[in-house]
Every structure is written in C-alpha cells, then in structure tokens.
Amino acid sequence: GEEVAQTPKHLVRGEGQKAKLYCAPIKGHSYVFWYQQVLKNEFKFLISFQNENVFDETGMPKERFSAKCLPNSPCSLEIQATKLEDSAVYFCASSQLGGVRGSYEQYFGPGTRLTVT
Amino acid sequence: RKEVEQDPGPFNVPEGATVAFNCTYSNSASQSFFWYRQDCRKEPKLLMSVYSSGNEDGRFTAQLNRASQYISLLIRDSKLSDSATYLCVVTFYSGNTPLVFGKGTRLSVIA
Q1: With an 8 Å Cβ cutoff, are A108 and B43 in contact?
Q2: B6: nearest CA in chain A?
C-alpha cells in the first residue's frame, strides 16, 4: 500500500507472556526497520531487513526478541516472556532501495503501543 | 556526549512568528540528515531531508553545516498546526542504515 501498516494498535500483556507485532511496508520498499520508543522520546533501533534478509541486527536484544520478514507476509517482531521494561511504542519504518539525492528516507507506520503489566 | 543533541524546549511562540531550532551531532562521518515532526502519541512524519546546499519547502528552511556538525530548521509564519515535537535525525553510514534520533524540540504555537 501507500503507507506503512502496523497491527495491532494496542497490545496489553502480563509479564512473561508473548507479544507479536506486525508490519507491512510501503509497496515497493525493500527495507524494513523496527524502532522502540520509550519515555521522553528515546528512540532505539532494533533490527532492519532487506526484503527477507536480516540487514542489521545490532540493536536487537538477543535473548527474548526475534523478528522475521517472509515473502508475501507482513513482517513480525516477537517478544517472548515480556518484561515491564518492554512497555513502549514499537514503530516500523520502510525505505526504498535507492536514495533520493543520496538521502535514504524512512517512512513510519502508526506504531504498536505495548503495555506490559 | 549524546550523539544528536537538541534543545528540548518548549518553545512557545505566537501565530505568525518565526522560530528556529538547532541540532548538533557528534559523528563527523554522519551521512544523511532529516527533520521529522511527531505529534503526541503518533508516528514521526518526515518533514524534510537536509542537504549540504540547504533546502526550503514552503515556510520551512533547513540548513546543514558539516564543519560545525550543526543542522537547523527555520519555520516562518508559524501556524497553530505547527505545534508538535521536531526531531533532528541523522544516519552514521550511507545507504539504508538506522536513524539516530535527537530527543526532540517541543513547539507550541499560541493563538
């Protein structure tokens, strides 16, 4: 589509439960990024994909977080055994392969607000 | 030292005013530069990319000074609808690489 789509809008999980978030990039965009926004506007990069392949996972907590982008399916971010500190808004962004004047613009979805109780 | 620094504000300005935001970045090899705006509880929306030659889009003008590692955003003739948090964003590498965000500058335009 013309916009990045994310589902669900809100997700509430008890500590220790699993959470799964979904993202559909803009049609034709090859790159997908996941970011976590906690209080006070702190954005943290988690992981990026080029099509189905992990491109950069330097921000990804290894133990409980996993992500996939499979052909013909929305990308997903899964958190096993959620903790209170995982409460945040998770944004997905997509970008196209070639930049514009050397600038690789990323477009964000509306986010998923995860609350861990 | 934070990687991207901004004055958090808030900047409270009357309608019609001109307001300027500044941002400094620590990595001299930074490649791409952007201003995003974020409304409360919404996603960041790309306002403009910032090029070395500077660029203008209507009431918005962005400047980049690589020598001083400094980016600015000027908003002329402020509207109530400009009230938002303005995020200074850079990338450290070329290509499709992660965005590094400042904490944002809060702007309130008052009638």
Answers
A1: yes
A2: A41
- Could you tell me if A52 and A29 are in contact, meaning their C-beta atoms sit under 8 angstroms apart? no
Residue A102's pLDDT is what? 66
Q: B32 and A31 in contact by Cβ < 8 A?
A: no
**Residues A98-112: pLDDT tens digits?**
766 666 899 999 999
**Spatial separation of the C-alpha atoms in residues A23 and A33, rounded to whole Å:** 10
The Cα A94–Cα A3 span in angstroms is: 9
State the pLDDT at residue A7: 98
DSSP-assigned states of every residue in B81-108: GG-EEEEEEEESSSSS---EE---EEEE
pLDDT digit string (tens) for B12-53?
A: 999 999 999 999 999 888 889 999 999 998 999 999 999 888
Closest among A39, A34, A35 to A84, alpha carbons compared: A39
Q: Please check whether residue B100 is in contact with residue B90, taking contact to mean a CB–CB distance below 8 angstroms.
A: yes
pLDDT in tens, A79-90: 999 999 999 999
The residue type at A50: Q
> Which segments of A23-91 does DSSP mark as H helices, in order?
none
